[in-house]
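Section 3.1: Structural characterization of target chains.
Under the original work plan, the team committed to producing a structural model for every single-chain target entering the pipeline before any wet-lab resources were allocated. The record below documents one such target. The sequence was received from the expression subgroup and is listed exactly as submitted; it comprises 101 residues.
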Amino acid sequence: MNYKNIPVAGSGVLGSQIAFQTAYKGFHVNLYDISDQVLGQAKERLTKLKDNYKEDIRATQQTVDEAFSRISFYADLAQAVADADLVIEANPEVAKIKTDF
């Protein structure tokens, strides 16, 4: 299958890392979480990941900026998954959150 659009549900530490690595590999990522405030925190984490990639794997500024540009942010799940080829669930390890999702 030819995946292009991959939503990631959950923008915490793990979800942010999954989203960035997925975008870094060239996929378009819709990062979903419960509010714009939480997504704002994710943007801060992703900005730090850009620096980590430059330091750890010697990625260029251009490649990390391009990866970041492939990530869109959604607080509405229906919008986040509208064009999904594959959905990655990275919600907290809380049974109620996972079953509700």
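The chain has a mean pLDDT of 96.
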